[in-house]
Specification:
This protein is of the alpha+beta class and 832 residues long. Helix content is 32%, strand content 22%. Strand 21 and strand 22 (567-574) form a beta hairpin. This is DUF1559 domain-containing protein.
């Protein structure tokens, strides 16, 4: 059986990294005599979508650069031939292929609405496929042990296949409706859909949005269109109460806080416009925007407003975003939330924020207000490999204030880094260029410089210095090429964001790898054993056309967003989807070269980074070990697994990690705990929320479930009951819920007994029980099901009772692991 043409195209899409080439083919025009599909969709469709199908759009597709690149070059013919040669394996695959082909040729429509009882229901109409109802019924009969009990019923003069979704009042059904295949799902969906089809209820054609966006001809061939209509939802649910204590709050009030009270709808179109693939999106609002919608409504700019960027740019992104205004908008929403929140609920947030600004040494809004609204991202090919010439340039409103804030910020960062982070200031062209140095990543040197009108941030100092030279007129700057100017002429000249991407850079790379991919595919087919030994793909590396042939018809892609009094709009014009900053003779070293160099360097970088993190984790364990020994000297034994408290269950008590806080220089932190209360009680809530640096493995989050977590847990011995065993048991470990272990009780020797191990199953560090001590219960004991393990390859690090830290392989003999996990098992332990 041959695969469908869409499946063939999907194969190409996968081969080119899911570039999403929207293509169609020439098919016979839709058969006459059927009712327009939209006549079957409910009037008040909150969500509407329509795909027109290739039969209606193929003529428009033939005009596009995409068609010329893939079809007129013969490349698609070869790909189709290759897919045709693959054997089919699915039962009834031919019928399935025909169904998929019909949908791609003729399209479908969808409408989802909310009924008078506030219950959603919807329909899907597969255009001109009346016979699809019987085809689907045949497929259902082939499904063994189907969860849905489908039945044939008569309703409204239709023969309907339907079933109830288990444990719900939701029904699902399909039938032939006026020349189409019709699906309905929801509460009372079948009856409601039939009422629309029979004209007893209005259909979507009379909906104002349909009349506004679909009744008139577009100036491009539409392949798909859809909307989300928020206004009827707001009208239907707006007066519903929101359960907030001591507040008479409605949905509309919440929407007003968020700034969504005047959001009307969002509409999207896509299709073909001349040689380009084209898409539009419109977000309509009424009245003055506020809250979230205000974040969309940014100040427009033109290309003339851009900073001087390098000559020959084929990829560039710029956007307008007022950071200070966004800050004010966010605080307005926060203050409104505080007004309706229970008394005191937001006090903690305001206090934490005030403490943050106090720690920073400046008000965050001052920093944001000193930055302008225009931001630009580009790659300077002349300044670095692997995209290291990348730079971000932002406008400046107040240069002295910005310098003061950033100087304060870097000083705080240096103090907190404990020598791991430093800065170097150098004079360049009469300005101060600041280089950031990270001890763990010495090969990366991010830099920034604040000029009077712009602040430039680069991954290397040269990217910043070259920007200063362009400001001074000592280096030439980018201006739009004829191709770019032609593309930009199709979109608004004022915008709130703009991106220019040349897809030829992307596809030049792909075409360079294509012959290799064909060879790899042939090798994979031979090695898989899933094909006849004599099978050969009917495509060879020589069948791939030269990249110039495919790229000749392509041109730069442009996307812009803009605003007006009615809302926000977005426009995209492209020849083929492309990836910004991906190679190209003008945007940097070719991607092929970069890929090879990255492939060579990345393992070394990763190994160096892993070694540094492993060393830091070992230091954490040593610090914990020293704290345990100091605790032993003070209290006559290692800490009990939980802080003793007969009134609390083990899982509710504070953990041994709280007990050793005074011995890791956290005495003040320890004294803040209420040792008689539950670990997550209101009294301890603030403390347990915070991560402890010594308890956090490098690379781990240190925070989860709303609490600070630990990357290190105590060893409780062997067996599920080990945390409850007495020290005299041969399966007991150093830690137990209700037992303190003394050094003299470790008969196997402190150098042969594990005390603490790394874990990736992080839990709150302050919680007693499984969160902080664990026994061995299931093999493999490391990186298996016991919670001991690490982010490092091959095993994990463990602290032994003598204070030593050792890396233990995940391949360790389970008997040996059990032996070193107990305090008096009496085993003879060799090397491990």
């Amino acid at each position: 059986m041959s695969l469908s043409r869409q499946q063939k195209l999907n194969g190409l899409v996968l081969a080119v990294c899911a570039m999403g080439i929207a293509v169609g083919w020439t098919y016979a025009q839709r058969a006459g005599g059927s009712t327009p599909p939209e006549n079957l969709l409910p009037y008040q469709s909150i969500i509407f979508a329509r795909a027109n199908g290739s039969a209606l759009t193929s003529e428009g597709f033939k005009q596009t650069a995409c068609y010329k690149a893939f079809f007129e070059t013969g490349l698609m013919d070869k790909i189709e031939e290759a897919f045709d040669s693959l054997p089919g394996t699915m039962p009834n695959e031919e019928q399935l292929d025909e169904a998929i082909t019909h949908i791609e040729e003729n399209g479908f429509s969808l409408g989802i609405t909310v009924g008078p009882t506030m219950q959603p229901w919807g329909v899907v109409v597969v255009h001109d496929w009346a016979e699809g109802a019987s085809v689907l019924s045949q497929f259902i009969e082939l499904i063994p042990d189907a969860e849905l009990d489908f039945q044939q019923v008569e309703q409204g003069g239709r023969s309907i296949t339907m079933a109830m979704i288990p444990d719900t009042p939701v029904e699902l059904g399909w039938w032939e409706e006026q020349g189409h295949l019709m699906f309905a799902i929801g509460l009372d969906a079948i009856r409601s859909a039939i009422a629309v089809a029979d004209g007893e209820q209005p259909n979507i054609v009379t909906n104002p949005l349909y009349e506004k966006y679909l009744s008139s001809d577009q100036d491009f061939t539409t392949t798909s269109v859809g909307w989300f209509d928020f206004e009827p939802l707001r009208e239907q649910f707006g007066q519903m109460p929101v359960p907030v204590p001591d507040q008479r709050l409605t949905v509309n009030a919440v929407l007003e806080i968020l700034g969504l009270h005047n959001f009307e709808h969002s509409v999207a179109h896509s299709g073909y416009k001349g040689e380009a693939m084209w898409s539009e999106q419109h977000v309509e609002i009424s009245g003055e925007p506020s809250g979230l919608l205000k974040l969309l409504m940014q100040k427009p700019f033109t290309l003339e407003d851009l900073p001087p960027i390098p000559v020959g740019q084929t990829s560039m992104v710029a956007a307008s975003f007022d950071l200070a205004d966004a800050y004010d908008t966010a605080w307005t929403m926060i203050d409104k939330v505080a007004e309706i929140a229970p008394p005191g609920e937001m006090d903690r947030f305001y206090e934490d924020y005030a403490e943050l600004e106090q720690e920073l040494g400046f008000e965050i809004r001052d920093l944001l207000a000193s930055i302008g609204h225009l931001h630009c991202l580009y790659s300077d090919a002349n300044q670095g490999l692997f995209g290291l010439g990348g730079a971000v340039v932002m406008g400046v409103n107040d240069a002295p204030q910005l310098r003061e804030c950033l100087e304060t910020l870097t000083e705080r960062a240096i103090d907190e880094s404990r020598g791991q982070f430093t800065t170097i200031d150098v004079e360049k062209r009469g300005r101060t260029l600041t280089i950031l140095r990270f001890n763990e990543a010495p090969f990366v040197t991010p830099s920034f410089c604040i000029d009077e009108d712009w602040v430039a941030i680069g991954l290397v100092p040269q990217a910043v210095e070259s920007f200063l030279m362009r400001i001074d007129g000592d280096l030439p700057s980018w201006s739009r090429s004829d191709e770019q100017a032609s593309a930009l002429a199709e979109v608004p000249s004022e915008f709130t964001s703009v991106s220019i991407i040349d897809p030829r850079d992307t596809y030049r790379l792909i075409m360079g790898f294509a012959p290799m991919l064909v060879g790899l595919a042939e090798f994979g087919i031979r090695e898989s054993g899933a094909f006849d030994p004599e099978f050969q793909l009917p495509i060879s590396p020589a069948d791939i056309p030269p990249s110039e042939v495919l790229l000749d018809s392509l041109f730069p892609n442009v996307s812009v967003t803009t605003v007006n009094t009615t809302g926000w709009q977005g426009y995209v014009r492209e020849s083929m989807p492309g990836i910004p900053f991906l190679g190209g003779g003008n945007t940097g070293t070719t991607v092929a070269t970069s890929a090879v160099l990255v492939a060579l360097l990345l393992p070394a970088v990763q190994q160096a980074r892993e070694a540094a993190r492993r060393a830091q984790s070992a230091n954490n364990l040593k610090q914990i070990g020293l704290a345990m020994h100091n605790y032993h000297d003070t209290h006559g034994g290692f800490p009990q697994g939980t802080i003793p408290n007969d009134d609390l269950e083990v899982e509710d008590r504070l953990s041994w990690l709280v007990s050793i806080l005074p011995f890791i220089d956290e005495l003040e932190f320890y004294e803040g705990f209420d040792l008689e209360a539950k670990w997550d009680s209101e009294e301890n809530e603030f403390l347990v929320d915070l991560p402890i640096e010594a308890y956090t493995m490098p690379g781990a989050e240190g925070w989860a479930y709303g609490y600070g977590t630990t990357s290190y847990v105590g060893m409780a011995g062997v067996g599920e009951d080990a945390p409850t065993l007495p020290a005299t048991s041969p399966r007991a470990g150093i830690f137990a819920y209700n037992r303190q272990t003394r050094m003299r009780e470790i008969l196997d020797g402190t150098s042969n007994t594990v005390a603490v191990g790394e874990t990736t199953d992080t839990e709150p560090w302050a919680a007693g029980g499984y969160s902080t001590i664990r026994p061995l219960t299931r093999q493999p004991y490391i990186n298996g099901g016991n919670g001991f393990g690490s982010r490092f390859n091959g095993g994990a690090q463990f602290l032994f009772a003598d204070g030593a830290v050792r890396f233990i392989s995940e391949e360790i003999d389970p008997d040996v692991m059990e032996a070193i996990s107990t305090i008096r098992g009496g085993e003879v332990v060799g090397d491990f």
